[in-house]
Amino acid sequence: MRHFEHLPVEARANLFHREPGEFSVDSPAGTLAVALGATLYCPATRPRLAEDIVKQAGRGVVSMVLCLEDSIDDAEVPGAEENLVRQLAELSGRGSGPSLPLIFIRVRTPEQIVDLVSRLGAGVRLLSGFVLPKFTEERGGAFLEALMSAETAQVTEALGGRRLFAMPVLESPELMHRETRTESLSGISRIVDKYRERVLALRLGVTDLCSAYGLRRAPDMTAYDVQMIASVIADVVNMLGRADGTGFTITGPVWEYFKPHERMFKPQLRISPFSSGRAESLRTALIEHHMDGLLREIELDRANGLQGKTCIHPTHVAPVHALSVVSHEEFSDAVDILEPQRCGGGVLRSSYTNKMNEVKPHRAWAERTLRRAEVFGVAREGVSFVELLAASLRT
Fold first, then answer.
1. Does residue 341 carry a pLDDT above 90?
2. Closest Cα to residue 43, out of 80, 94, 97?
3. Which range of residues forms the domain containing residue 130?
4. Considering the chain, what is the average pLDDT of its residues?
5. Beta pairing class for 378-379 and 16-18
6. Residues 297 and 351 reside in one and the same domain
7. Domain count of the chain?
8. What is the pLDDT of residues 190-206, one digit of tens each?
């Protein structure tokens, strides 16, 4: 699979200086963690779940979470489990076809992991792993041990020898409370480091974090405008997202809105990037659906060290992926910084002659940028996220 594969070949050639690279469930964990992109959550109760997965794959979705937790009522869990097993079995039996997304199951308890893996049978081959809710040091060990114990010899054979990954969700009240946050993050750090080879990425459960104080951000505001949430994100990245080899990929929080709401503040999208042709109507549509807030939050996610995003609506996928493509300018800077002859450091003027590139301090940024370029591609010079988004929405 690869990002933007749903676009026509000619469109990709016009948009990309370097097209997105291919990856699969067998790719290195570091590649998959970056490639997750917009991870679309879907309740496991959906009656046409198998068809939904195929349809979303055709629209550019490369990672999905089938949810058995907060997205469904407590009383629906048994039926949702049965539906999930049945639908994955159906999907597994379809044979060759279009590339399917990386599929994860969000469970409620450690016991569900072992039970579901045993019930999935051959359908387990479609599974990339599990999302672990309300993750703490105390709860996390049981989830991760269950993940490992679920991999019997028979399951490993069905998986083709690969391992199932875990994506813990950081959303417990202890992270919101100042007096317990540091110790809670230290505990999470200890447990995920112990199982490092199994932890693909850490996800931020901002909705649950807000609930500890009865908060909910409006569609005019990003998670970073809610100072209590912004402080949690900063501390999570500080302790768990370091670029020194000890950190993990941390994904951006969910954007909750997808229908028009009454607007209190002025739009956050400048006119100039949308000033030609159809792009003007695209800007109007984005503003009408409060997608300008989503676009701003995606940019702030990256500025604060997060990659990818949790999504609860298909319309959020294209903006996340369009803004994940590495710009030609970013790529040029990263390549210049990482040239072998500059390993001793120094300062140089950027190829675009508009900024300073300092080799040693900017090296980690450059390495992260090129990893993103591998899976999301590099835009042609002069191509912005507006063209990438418009092309994605046309398909």
1. no
2. 80
3. 24-324
4. 91
5. antiparallel
6. no
7. 2
8. 999 999 999 999 999 99
